[in-house]
Amino acid sequence: MSSSSLRYLCAGKRALSRPCLRGLATTQRPLAAARHLPVGSSRGVADSAKIMLEQDEGFGFIRHNPRPQKPRTLGVTEIRGPYYSAMGKRYLQDVFDTMGYQVDGVKFAGGSFSLFPEDKLRELIQLVHENNAYVSTSDPKTAVDRYLKKCKDVGFDVIEVSAGFLSLPQDDWLRLVDKVHDEGMVAKPEIGIQFGAGGDTSSTELESLGTSDPSRIVKAGKQFIDAGVERIMIESEGITENVAKWRTDVIEYILGELPSEKVMFEAADPAVFNWYIREFGVDVNLFVDHSQIVQLSCLRAGIWGMADTFGKITTFR
């Protein structure tokens, strides 16, 4: 599947500075029915071969934490695709050839998908689907209806609906979610406590903007779940990124109030996802850069880690 983000969207044929929305959809599609298959559903055989850690004749004799087969609802790993570095079909194929078993989704951050020639974008999306993963995007600046239709046309499955730079009423946000569902795709709301998060804003400027009450995340999250969303992305800024001290209390509060399988945390640094795995175990859903997939997968498997996690991450199942 694939995902795209609605951050600067407006209805109609004109690009405006804020989203413009229609009334709530009268029919709610199950998200697992979006586009062709559920998020992470099997499309190809590229990741069907067992990794050596799961083979008796390989390294299966080493104590490790086995991962459930795709599609997973816990321990989901979404990676950032082209953004900090360019990525073509051969580059992405290498990622899947080596780490395809570990990758559940690929996100095109910052509207990067719009910079591709269409045929090359379609190639990447098809490659992700062939490797049993979904695709997600971010930050469009176009009309809502045209944007959604084009995202569906090129093969995106998941639309990330973010208001990091906008003051958007919750009811309007829910209407956007319904509009995404109405187009036959999966909506993935992105929420956080830091206004202006998700861009290249300096930490000093973000700090001056202040943060919102964590209860806002929980309230919004419950409404999104009631609206049928499959998974909610928690923005890292203000929590573990661009802060003097991590807001671990916010993370604990979120996981205490929302189902863990419905939440995914952005973990922008190895020290951050090391902490998440240490505190909440291998099943926590995380979004990392594609360059970090090997390190995170070793940590989930319990075969590597930092001083506080190496040899200490385990499961009982």
Automatic annotation (TrEMBL):
InterPro entries per the UniProt record, alphabetical: Aldolase_TIM (IPR013785), ComA_synth (IPR003830), ComA_synth_sf (IPR036112)
SUPFAM superfamilies: (2r)-phospho-3-sulfolactate synthase ComA (SSF102110)
Transmembrane segments: none
Domain of life: Eukaryota
A UniProt-annotated Pfam family: ComA
Entry similarity comment: Belongs to the phosphosulfolactate synthase family.
Protein name as it appears in the record: RhoGAP domain-containing protein
